[in-house]
Design brief:
The complex is a heterotrimer of chains A (213), B (227) and C (195). By secondary structure, chain A is mainly α. Chain A is 83% helix and 0% strand. In chain A, helix 1 crosses helix 6, helix 2 runs antiparallel to helix 3 and helix 3 runs antiparallel to helix 6. The chains are: A mainly alpha (213), B mainly alpha (227), C alpha/beta (195).
Chain lengths: 213, 227, 195
Amino acid sequence: MSGYLSDVAALARKDLLLELRGRDTLPAMLLFVASALVIFHFALPSGTGELAGLGLLWVAIVFTALLGLSRAFVAEREQGVLDGLVLAPSDRSAIWLGKAIAAFAFLALAEVVALPLFALFFSSVDGATVAGVVLADVGICAVGVFLAAMSIATRARELLLPVLFLPLAIPLIVGGVGASVTENPGRYLGFLALYDLLFATICWASFEYVVAE
Amino acid sequence: MWLRNNALAASAALAAVLLASAIALIAFYVPVDADQGLSQKIFYFHVPIALTAYACFGWGAWKALRHLWKRQEGADLESYVAIHLGVIFGAMTLLTGSIWARASWGVWWAWSSKQLVLFLVLFLFYCAYFMLRFSVEPGPRRANLSAVYALFGVVLIPISFLAIRLAEDFIHPTVFTSNGPQMSGSMFFTFCVSWAAMLATFGALYRLELAGKRIDARMRELRELLA
Amino acid sequence: MTIRARGLAMRYGAKRVFEGLDLDVEPGGFVLVTGPNGSGKTTLMRLISGLVLPTAGELEVDSDRARLGFLAHEPLVYRELTALENLELYGRLYRVPERRERIGMLLERFDLWDARSERTGSFSRGMLQRLALCRVFLHEPSLLLLDEPFSALDAEGAALLDRELAARRGRSTFLVATHDPERLEPLATGRLAFA
């Protein structure tokens, strides 16, 4: 067990280190989310109310995440390193978990910028929204990293990722927006937790089959 | 014995008989609905088709599990065929649902129909299944990826249903009253026959498509052996 | 038998890479695999390593992933990480005991100690190959699959590798794909030629 966690830690550390050195994904995500928020200002006719803005925040989060996730396995694919990781005696699911943790860190960093910016441009962000963001991030990263690994095994590569991801992101949007706009966020947060639990489990159990034959 | 050798013909015959019976029952036997009129009869197609689509996806996921877990030969192909038919039935569900909405409420699409919205999400998901499948060379990798994705789909069905339910709280669609059937005996009987007919149609089409694909595979193998 | 193959066949769609391959490699054996480019040497390596499944035939490999070392065409290292960091990662994943010491020792043995803190993106092809060799030997594998290990090595690098192979011969099992079989002939216990 401790071996497994140490594998995950080593892999997550590797991904964080790669981003620190490469410095291409995170700045792109930050710039993207800021631009998206500005676009939303122009996309919301006056009188649509503050709730519409909150809904669009979630759109911004999902698409920013997609941007980052499309880069998730690029290093492994370009340099063929995935073979090296797959051949290691560690459980293959550790590859997924390590990368999902790193992806969560990047997404969270992007949101640390996005949420205050949103509060500045549109309306304040309450605790339920933040909780929703955290829970939704778990689901986005778990499923997103998993699907990113699937897409690189295909001819279409990263092009396939949004196609695979968006239907699965619909429940997350519902949970997130519900937590942000309704008076009863608890139900939606609970739903997000359920999504996270179910999909993280299935991702963890089946990642083996995505990278190995 | 004869039944075994001619399973495909037998299932096709069964489907034909049931379909014919169902259509006859729907057209002539079951009473016209007091509130919605003749158009309500689409319900007897729409819901059985929808339920059959779920059955297709469920069967596809089961075969996917057999492939991953037990490495069963041919399970991947069976899973693919089931999902393929599921998408066809799903498209039919969206179509009949749309017609029903138009006939009942005058609109071609109703977000208030949870059933329809769920099918839309699933339709998108399973179309992506095909994009995935056709983007990978045939082989163990493609079978594994397809199987895993099919399992995701089966988890997505209840989650999406929950999500759509929850979303109604803040989406506030104009609610059209669609009285879920409080069915009388004759209505229930017709419904069941129709459902059986759709399932039998799935069964027959499933066998047919599988047989065709297996022959294709054999042909390819033979061609490669001879080459 | 460390490796046992019967009627092994590999096909990618319509393209037949090889078929009807039988192979026996006993523990401690040193088998050279020769043949022109594209004849299936690399495919065989990938099959035995477990990265791909054969389209037909039986394959038994008496080794788990922890005891297997695979040298591919690519060095399988991250360009943005240093040599040390790459080996650290593999060392952790392979649970190498006394990791730091072993890494240091291998880097020295393959003359990479001075470049240990440089990003591998700046390495020459020869250096990358030597780093890949460090990676392969890091966890003391008992079964080594080497796909053209001498490629990109200069005379010094090749001498280093010769020394390493000679030291391990007999203790580990080797399957080596090479364009230069004469060099390894003294060590070989068997040959497999692809047409």
